[in-house]
Amino acid sequence: MTSHLISIEDLDRAAIERILLRAQSFAEVSGREIKKVPALRGRTVVNLFYEASTRTSSSFELAATRLSADVINIRASGSSIEKGESLRDTVQTLTAYEPAAIVIRSPYAGAAAQVAQWTDAAVVNAGDGKHEHPTQALLDVFALQSRVGRLDGLKIWIVGDVLHSRVARSDISAFQKMGAKVTVAGPPTLLPREIEALGCSASPTLDGLTEADVIYVLRMQHERMQEAFVPSLGEYAARYQINHERLRPGQLVMHPGPVNRGVEISADVIDSEISLIGEQVKAGVAVRMAVLYELLVGTTTLAAVA
Amino acid sequence: MPQKLFRRPAPAADLLIKNAHVLDPRAGIDGQHDVLVRGGKIAELGAPGSVSAESLPPTAPTMDATGKHLFPAFVDPHVHLRSPGQEYKENLETGTSSAAAGGFCQVIAMPNTSPVIDAVTVLRSLTTVASQQAHVPTGFLASITVGLQGSDLSPMAALADAGALGFTDDGKPVTSAGMLRKALQYQRLAGGVIALHEEDPALSGAGVMHEGAVSARLGVTGIPSISESTMVARDSALAKFEDARMHFQHLSCVESVQALAYWREAGARVSGEATPHHLTLTHEDVRSLDTRMKMNPPLRTESDRQALIEGLRSGVIECIATDHAPHARYEKEMPFEQAPMGTTGLETAFAAVYNELVKPGVLPLGLVVERMTTGGALYGLQIPTIAVDAEANLVLVDLEASWTVGEHGYVSRSENCCFHGRTFAGVVLTTIAAGSVVYEHGKELDR
After folding, report:
1. pTM of the predicted model over 0.80
2. Is the same domain home to B110 and B242?
3. pLDDT tens-place string over residues A184-200
4. What is the CATH code of the structural domain delimited by A8-132+283-305?
5. Residues B54 and B134 reside in one and the same domain
6. CA distance B231 to B174
7. B372 and B238 in one domain?
């Protein structure tokens, strides 16, 4: 049976720790002059991106390349997708190349899970609609652990547009699995009804933000908004922007990027030493190498056979 | 009164059903009987062993129905047969054979076809085709507004004269209260019930499932319950004001049941239906983003489901309707947010309700049979009954035998059934509709 990474729910704490431990050793590879290991030599990884992406697509490409895989990158524009080919037909076509893994980014929830039903390849969800972005959550945990150690008991506030954020949904789950206590905060129109069912607290204001050890700032996703959820970005910034006036010493700040400078977060915070944004980007390659390795080489089933 | 039900010519049945457990709560029958059908009518009904087949032609079959149940056949007031225009999903022949396989003797088709049933010519072409192809008597609703656009009244009186049983813009709400009020006033001339798909587009927005804990987790835009219930409340008030006859289709939430109960108590002539899927599934079943679980209105919470069951029990909701909504396989093989809404339901309706509600003791079998046979009455159709001299509308069911949904495919042209893969007790053995045998389990349909 092929294993996939569709949702953070697919992983328990032990699996997350195993992947991040491996990511640690791949991070060391990335520090060498020759950054390649032969783990996936002769195998093919397809990156199928139905949505614009810079850091996710480039880091998946780099991760597969550094594992010595052959990589095919397919983007919606300029491919048969643009000519109206269905997801299933595209996946069946790609399956003819016998890829070991398909990495998929889609604007629609559940797309990665569907692809997993249609192919023998291992499927990695690189973001499906507003649903999940599990490798982002893994690299967030990795970057945060690298800075502070274990997350047990840590108070993490996820601030901003939770409604449209797949990162928020994966992070809430991943942070909680690692022992952190999560609060989501943002405009009431951008907090999903019954979000507390995920085990987090929810707050319509930033009152109480001082309790946070870590503040995870979400991007205001204008591109996903079909209507106005806040009166103006100015009003949003006045109430929810993370800046030095709202922060106390000792707090750390994260952001999945790309950043709207001066909207959800002030420019000086981004560039300060309390920001983990650069470390998050850097963690992307090592963590995605570890995910591909976990699925294609170091699966538990294979380990059991060995 | 113009003809309202249409079906292809079929021979009148002659047969003797021996020792069946006959259950017709409305007729007060619940026990072992022999039933003799002669010339398509129920000719004799007697104690086991007391009825002889002598009066039948020598070739007429005798069925030993020991251990089987015989009910009045079911009536479905809400199906999408997709003709004209979307015959790749279903047509009158396949849809009504699916109905026959589910134990139904009458179905009522919705007008959201392509073109919409908003003109006498379209309706006439359908009734003509139904007269040649429909396995079970089929009635039609016409649209309330031209093209379901919500802005101009369809020629309701002419459509009623041509056979329309009532009017609906199903698939869409009549958003404008002013528009709906005109239709309710015009009902005094045209007759026919106004049936409504209740949903406020401003509240539903881009929603594709119930708004709640599951949609919050999945990051899928939700449809709040109040999108339906505020329209049920608004339109009930209109019905009361105009003293119009109004029916609410596929109710899905506790707030709607409360609104319906309130306005019925207040004297409004309003009624409601619930589907087998809303009575047996919840938004928890959507967690896997299986597109077969995508329908409108969406599957909601356990308390909504319980409210529908209570509504059915109390009679606030007077009938079960499938909202049978076939879609082609490739259409449902889209990501959840893109896939069309709807599940098929004719072949699974009784089994789903029997397994999920009757077997666990939630609802009595008699009540379910009653609610599955009344759906045509609201449109003025006679309720099937098991009585001497009545037209034979019968379904013979084996409640002990079980089957796995979809294991041998579907009779419907489409396979988007939300119960796919479930194993249910309750196999429909024989369906007799309007005096003709239209389905026999294990036998190829006469197509």
Report:
1. yes
2. yes
3. 999 999 999 999 999 99
4. 3.40.50.1370
5. no
6. 9
7. yes
Nearest to B337 among A129, A195, A197 (CB): A129
CA distance A135 to chain B (A): 17
CATH of the domain at B277: 3.20.20.140
Q: Which residues of A touch B333 (CB under 8 A)?
A: 86-88, 114
Q: Contact B37/B436 with Cβ under 8 angstroms?
A: no
Residues A279-285: what's their mean pLDDT?
A: 95
Nearest to B101 by CA among B375, B440, B407: B440
For A39, other C-beta atoms within 10 Å of its C-beta total: 17
Q: Are the beta carbons of A111 and B335 separated by less than 8 Å?
A: yes
CB atoms within 10 A of CB B381: 19
Backbone dihedral angles phi then psi of residue B326, each to the nearest 5 degrees: -70, 145
- Using the Cβ of B235 and the Cβ atoms of chain A, whether some distance falls under 8 Å is answered with no
- Ranges in chain A annotated CATH 3.40.50.1370: 8-132+283-305, 134-280
Quote the CA–CA distance of B164 and B158 in Å, as a whole number.
9
Task: Identify whether residues B46 and B141 lie together within a single domain.
Answer: no
For residue A180, give Cα distances in angstroms to A183, A203, A247: 10, 17, 20
The answer on B138 and B37 residing in a single domain is no
Cβ of residue A36 closer than 8 Å to a chain B Cβ: no
Q: Would you say residue B266 lies in a domain?
A: yes
The alpha carbon of residue B226 is apart from the nearest alpha carbon of chain A, in Å, by 13
CATH architecture classification, A134-280? 3-Layer(aba) Sandwich (3.40)
Strands B41-46, B29-38: pairing is antiparallel
pLDDT, position A7:
96
Residue ranges of chain B with pLDDT lower than 70? 445-447
Answer for the pair B147, B175: CB distance below 8 angstroms, yes or no: no
| Active-site residue, selected from the candidate residues B323, B389, B398, B446 | B323
- Catalytic residue at B323? yes
Residues 6+ apart with CB under 8 A from B286: B209, B210, B214, B218, B293, B294, B298, B299
In angstroms, the CA B55 to CA B61 distance is: 12
Domain count across chain B? 2
- Enclosing domain of residue B251: 73-379
Tell me the pLDDT tens digit for each residue of B342-355.
Answer: 999 999 999 999 99
Which pLDDT band holds residue A228 (cuts at 50, 70, 90)?
confident
How far is A159 from A217, CA to CA, in rounded Å? Answer: 5
Contact flag A109-B220 (C-beta cutoff 8 Å): yes
Joined tokens for residue B142: 């016409």
At residue A303, the pLDDT reads: 37
Chain A residues with CB-CB distance to B335 below 8 A: 87, 106, 108-111, 114, 128-129
Whether A193 and B216 lie within 8 Å, measured CB to CB: yes
Of the candidates A114, A130, A193, the beta carbon closest to that of B335 is on: A114
Strand ranges inside B197-289, DSSP E: 209-210, 222-223, 245-248, 269-274
CA distance B44 to B63: 15
Give B-chain residues touching A131 at CB under 8 angstroms: 218-220, 289
B366/B26 Cα distance (integer angstroms): 9
In order of A112, A224, A273, B207, B341, the CA distances from B210 in angstroms are 22, 20, 43, 8, 13
B298 touches chain A (CB under 8 A): no
| 8 A C-beta contact, residue A178 and residue A16 | yes
CB-based contact (8 Å) between A7 and chain B?
no
Q: Would you say residue B384 lies in a domain? A: no
For residues B418 and B431, state if they share a domain.
yes
Complex ipTM: 0.92
Q: Please give the Cα distance from B285 to B146 (Å, whole number).
A: 36
CA distance A289 to B3: 70
Same domain, B370 and B426: no
